[in-house]
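Our collaborator T.R. sent over the components below with a one-line note: 'Predict the complex.' Nothing else. No constraints on interfaces, no templates requested, no preferences about which chain binds where. So this is a plain run: every listed entity goes in together, and whatever single assembly comes back becomes the starting point for the next discussion.
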Amino acid sequence: MPELNTSSLPDLIFSVLFFFMMVTSMREVTLMVKFEKPTGTQLEKLARKSCTSFIYIGRPTDQYIGQYGSGTRVQLNDAYAEPAQVYDFIMEDRGELAEIDKPFYTVSIKADKEAPMGIITDVKQMLRKSYALKIMYSAQKPND
Amino acid sequence: MGKKKKVPGLNASSTADISFILLIFFLVTTSMDTDQGLGRTLPKPPEDDEINNELKVKERNILNIRINKNNDIMFRDDFTVTPKADAHNVLRLDPGEALLIKQETMRFIANKENNPNLPELKSKDVPLIGRCMVTENHVISVQTDRGTSYGVYFMVQDIIVSAYNELRDELAKEKFNYKFEFLSKEQQAAIKEVYPQKISEAEPRQYGKAL
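Returned assembly:
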């Protein structure tokens, strides 16, 4: 029986590898807040993930609950923050984008469905102040 | 001329394994999940001189939906509904009540019967569709208290968007025989002109006053 020629196998796998490297993005941050997204039926997909910043809002995870209490908190990058710090966060994140990508800059708000609206309104006001006007309320499809 | 030396071939049989390991590493560390949700555009921050000449909107053009800190939803001054916790402790509206909000919102957006209490209709020339009556000045405003649960706020937003989508689908089927999502970009733009999505992201000073 003739042996199968496998000399092109590495090239093949490499192409698959490069494909995955291009279409996926690195996992963003380690989450320090627990959140369960609200469910909705009319969702649209986030168009450009590379031009997006994420703001997480929820209660601290079990690991941090002793240190920070169980009140709802905002997480920016890898640390808890006050809503007022959103301004600097946006300026920094948007500054890293190329000039042509800036009109597509979107902020995705990943908030827990039990979070009070007060904190979300505070964050929204800071977003307005920093002219990050395109936002998205992150959600999921109902499972059933 | 020296003797031709034969170069021994490099044993490359393990390259496949190496690249497999790399591939698996990338599969594990990256995420493919595409984020989804409801997109919104916030209004520009108020300039100092703009604060006084606030945009005046006629009473009939506003649909006020207010949610208080007990998550009771008040639709205009017409009715109030309260979402109840289900088996998973998630606040949900009774399907009948959700449908009622959706239908009332649709009635408000379209104002097909030209009711004087619903938004004013204006004649407008829309490409591909022609002249039609549009309620282009309507605004839907969702006002919340600081204690309102985000989940309930989101649920109301979702119902409003579903009202818009149903109206757009209806018109798309009537004019172009297809659902909105299957239309061309120009056709979608035309339909969006007839039913523009106008949901106000309420100013904070409004909710202190309203509730």
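Summary for T.R.: Chain A touches chain B through 56 residues (CB under 8 Å).
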